[in-house]
Amino acid sequence: MQVSGPFYPLETGRRDVTLSFSGVATNDLPKTVAYFALRGFNERETVSLLGAHSIGTVHCGSFLNLLRSRCYNNHTSPSPSPSSSSAGDLVSPPSPQMAGVEMDYEGKGSCFGTLYYHSLLQGRGILYVDQQLTVGEETEAWVRAYGSDASLFRQDFAKAMMKLSNLGVLIAPVGQVRISCSKTV
User: Fold this and answer.
1) For the segment 78-90, what is each residue's pLDDT rounded down to a tens digit?
2) Which terminal Cβ of the chain has fewer Cβ within 10 Å, N or C?
3) Hey, what CATH class is 22-165 in?
């Protein structure tokens, strides 16, 4: 799928693990930064990689409890704002497994850009880990930098993605080559 993001070369035939590590997405920012640091990524690279959250779909189960907590308990930690355009629609979805929200911060269509970072600065991040980028001094500085310089973001994102794609590459018979990136075989 094309999303008007930067070009970066990738090796073909990559094998992926058959497990999901979705729990990492609900971590506090220090844990997320530490998780990436253990793999050789600095805060700049981590903030740029999280910019990938500007596209795709997130299921309500990933953030519904956070929104309810903020709405009903006057939650004050960095979390999605209940006034965000998505939050009002999420108070009672039919089923957290079925409901989802497009991470399309850019508007209609599949776009990849810096509005994601502008949204974080306005307290309108959808995922907890994303909104926490505005808490750390260095991570907030990169959020501001990427929000004001699309070229810098795209350049840094491409470099970080190339680095990430070469991290712990699996060789047959371990892992699998996926036909669909979102599904394991």
Assistant:
1) 555 544 444 444 4
2) N
3) mainly alpha
